[in-house]
Amino acid sequence: MSSMSITIAAGGVSQQRVTDATTTGLDLFGDDKTVVAVRVNGELRDLNRTLPEGATVEPVPIGSPDGLSILRHSTAHVAAQAVQSLHAEAKLGIGPPITDGFYYDFDVAAPFTPDDLRDIEKTMTKIIKERQRFRRRAVSDDGARTELAAEPYKLELITDKASASENDEASAEVGVGELTIYDNLRRDDSVAWKDLCRGPHVPHTGYIPAFALTRNSAAYWRGDQRNNQLQRLYGTAWPSREELKAYETRLAEAAKRDHRKLGAELDLYSFPDEIGSGLAVFHPKGGLLRKIMEDYSRQRHVEAGYEFVNTPHISKAELFTISGHLGFYGDLMYPPMHVDEERHADGSLKRQGQDYYLKPMNCPMHCLIFRSRGRSYRELPLRLFEFGSVYRYELSGVIHGLTRVRGMTQDDAHIYCTVDQMQEELTSLLQFVLGLLADYGLTDFYLELSTRDPEKSIGSDEDWERATDALRRAAETSGLELVLDPGGAAFYAPKISVQARDAIGRSWQMSTIQVDLMLPDRFDLEITAPDGTRQRPVMIHRALFGSVERFIAVLVEHYAGAFPPWLAPVQVICVPVAGEFNDYLINLATALRAAGVRVEVDTSDDRMQKKIRNAERLKVPYILIAGGEDAAANAVSFRYRDRRQKNGIPLDAAIAEITGDIAARRQV
To answer: Which of 73, 366, 472, 495 is catalytic?
Structure first.
């Protein structure tokens, strides 16, 4: 038997080994059930594939990001096999791994019920216990069509494979290269089930230690509402039952923190059907929360040298043609409004009408402000800031509370600077962003750098390289972890996304920073340089909150509705022990208001204990209680959100404690 040499790289150590020519990853790592695949010369592969001569081989642990994706995609196959064994008519869509789990889409006669999910889980458990092996087979396009003739959605993927993208969730099924089918084999080598898939997969279903189906929903095929509506089955899989249990605990905590639920309970906002999907209204307390957030942000922007502008909600189509949004972003824009057309009495055209669009972005209008007069290099950097309302026609299936809406307000800034100023501006801007987010209580960050998609972008390679390098250097200066997002940039610019982890460890995309070397060209923006020549400025896009609506949703879930005193719409509720102490607390409330505190006095006819429960339900930071002893001592009793209580606090001390906590932005 012939031999070959390979290099095994594990734990930061590389070791050369001579093996026979038929060696597989299973031969090397099969005794370690925590290894689910191998990386061969940088490419992920199944453990049971033969290794090539001279390969560098790395084990892929089940708990690594790649290992978790492989585990979850393998579990998605098991789920699909279980569905088709229970519902023979089910047609297969796609089943990619996603954050913390997987999904699989099915065309079935009726939506899945809770009983269906329980039956599917039981069948999945049987398949896992059978330790069915995953076998990879390369097939031709025509061969795949023959084998999958009864699967119309798979046939479509085969036809469209030339246009497949790594950013498309269908990429788990097909790529630009060869097609592969994975068979699930029983112990006697008979085929139990098969699916079109790129892989890799775990060696057999027994490698799946812990899984659960979490929910199901409707989903349009490939996210397009013009296509058939399918049933999407969601699930999760983890390396151990303990990790699955911890995840389920996090899900339960997340459900308690759901901003849609808390928004209703705290009377902050709602989503009336009469207005339309993805369009929220803010109630008085929610409006006050917005004002507090926005006012503090405005203050910090003034201190940082920003200038405030305002722009309209709609514009003629020409603006978005110049900017490129109609060409690259048109699918996410609302349909045009055709206005100003006039006709003669006989119906013939007297005046040509024009198309107007609701704006999806503020940047084109900010470019017009910059271009409104001549600009000198001495004016730069020019930092324009706006709380600007924008509108995006998101598909109804992806709209979710305040986190995915159709109408939103962006805290949008566009900074115009010289090439020489760009690096310093980016570095200071990122620090400003991180500092302001921290003031709102988000302090655990990492950064994501989204780079160019050559198929969906404008501009030269040189400009993109220069812009991307500037962002990378600013990110590295921050000292934060930097994660790459290849091909994830907008059509006009690379970007840094600030990712923030909340109180229960979930990551949220917050601020984005983009270096744009394209729009200044498209809008013919110029500055007079020191030598008198006309030069292009650099344009930096920055949305700090992302959108006000989404940021509020994140804060509601981060704090579980229990905002720190400085952010709470109502900071104090005063509760009299009996009606005779109403005036005493009304006078205290007047003093608190004079000190800038947002306070209410509950003078209802409810009993004191019910008033306290009502205040606790509203998650108010301080409940101040007064009865006879308090009034006689010119004092008050404190009750905090954690139900601690301090009695007999002098009024001056009570006011000082509350105003001190607010000024210091403490969490109580």
So the answer is: 495
Exactly one of 46, 116, 195, 412 is catalytic; name it. 412
Residue tagged 């009750």 (tokens)? 639
521 is catalytic: no
Single-letter code of the amino acid located at 526: E
DSSP state, residue 404: B
Q: Outline where DSSP puts E strands in 392-494.
A: 407-417, 444-450, 482-485
Q: How far apart are CA 312 and CA 172, in angstroms?
A: 43
Residue of 73, 198, 359, 392 marked catalytic: 392
Is 617 catalytic? The answer is: no
Q: Taking Cα atoms as reference points, which of 204, 201, 197, 140 lies closest to residue 169?
A: 197
Which of 73, 290, 414, 542 is labelled catalytic? 414
541 is catalytic: yes
Of 582, 594, 565, the C-alpha closest to 652 is: 594
Contacts of 216 (CB under 8 A, 6+ apart): 111, 112, 117, 231, 232, 233, 234
Task: Choose the catalytic residue: 541, 550, 558, 639.
Answer: 541
Residue 84 has pLDDT above 90, yes or no: yes
Q: What is the pLDDT of residues 367-405, one digit of tens each?
A: 999 999 999 999 999 999 999 999 999 887 788 999 999
pLDDT tier, 341 (very low <50, low <70, confident <90, very high otherwise) = confident
Residue with tokens 């469209």: 160
495 flagged as catalytic: yes
Asked if 601 contacts 574 with a C-beta cutoff of 8 angstroms, the reply is: yes
One-letter amino acid at 279 equals: L
In three-state form (DSSP H/G/I as H, E/B as E, the rest C), the secondary structure along 100-140 is CEEEEEEECCCCCCHHHHHHHHHHHHHHHHCCCEEEEEEEC
In order of 361, 363, 496, the CA distances from 543 in angstroms are: 11, 11, 11
If you write DSSP's letter for every residue of 502-537 in order, what string do you get? Answer: -TTS-EEEEEEEEEESSHHHHTT--EE-TTS-EEPP
Provide the 10 A C-beta neighbour count for residue 537: 24
Q: Which of 392, 389, 442, 393 is nearest to 551 (CA)?
A: 442
From edge to edge, which strands make up the β-sheet containing 572-576?
A: 599-601, 572-576, 622-626, 635-640, 645-650
Known active-site residue 392:
yes
Asked if residues 575 and 625 have their Cβ atoms less than 8 Å apart, the reply is yes
Q: What is the mean pLDDT of the chain?
A: 92
Annotated active-site residue in 81, 231, 410, 571: 410
* Terminal C-alpha separation, the chain: 72
